[in-house]
């Protein structure tokens, strides 16, 4: 028992050290990005027409007159205190801006990954079971289209067809203008906040706005999840234990879902987690097309004007999200597969 606890403690220590080293490397990377970008934060702060004295004051204020190692240590110290700097574009703390924008992207990405995983996993299993048949070819063509077509193009076509022509969904934005501010902001997730407030008009309007961009993102995610699920299932269906299960009298459905599918759950956890992380940081194009006030649009707008405080924080958050999702998938890996324990 003591040996087992020592092994578990050592594994936990190694995992913690790996995460810390990864985050430290990410901090260093974001700092280097902020320094090599051809942007002068001090000049951006005071403007092109400011005097030399005002410019030098801005340099001192931003700490750019100090040695680079000292700047990095100050940067890390500020981050540990939750100070991400002031956005040069909005004039507000970057943390405040991101806290306002990030829930919109999380809501969109969560809706999308539910669609992607909810459709992609069953389609992948069905395609594998019907390998090289008509149904398999149809699924493969649908997923190929999802991989091949630019997502911003699909978004624009979706707006033209489902909004402009058919009127089935609402247009750009997160909610109609006349509903803005009617629901108290409790969680930052508009669908949840409208339910908590019991305002069904706001809820249905928000749902009508999110369904099209989330479906398009979900389609791209579904294409990836379907292909990976099909690949995993084909490998399992070729194993002898599936043949043995069929010989013993189990139906195809039982052999597929109770045996083969149970053995790919672990891989699917990782695939869905990575797909979700990709949606969080890759929703930039869809947010731009639909005018969605989320994290991706915030990062893009600040990148265009060289607001490095905001850009560096956004890069750091994306890295932390992926590290966190990988850690979560490892934990779920151990829960689902006793062999890894």
From TrEMBL:
The annotated topology with respect to the bilayer is: Multi-pass membrane protein
What family name appears in the similarity comment?
A: Belongs to the binding-protein-dependent transport system permease family.
Q: Which InterPro entries match?
A: BPD_transp_1_N, MetI-like, MetI-like_sf
Name one cellular component (GO) term.
plasma membrane
* Parts of the chain that traverse the membrane: 108-129, 141-166, 206-225, 268-290, 310-333
Family matches, as PANTHER family? D,D-DIPEPTIDE TRANSPORT SYSTEM PERMEASE PROTEIN DDPB-RELATED, DIPEPTIDE TRANSPORT SYSTEM PERMEASE PROTEIN DPPB-RELATED
PROSITE patterns from the UniProt entry: ABC_TM1
Designated name of the protein: ABC transporter permease
Supply the CDD domains for this chain: TM_PBP2
Span of domain ABC transmembrane type-1: 102-329
Keywords recorded for this protein, A-Z? Cell membrane, Membrane, Transmembrane, Transmembrane helix, Transport
Q: Which SUPFAM superfamilies match?
A: MetI-like
The molecular function terms of the Gene Ontology recorded here are:
dipeptide transmembrane transporter activity
Subcellular location, record wording: Cell membrane
Chief place of localization? membrane
Is this entry keyworded DNA repair? Answer: no
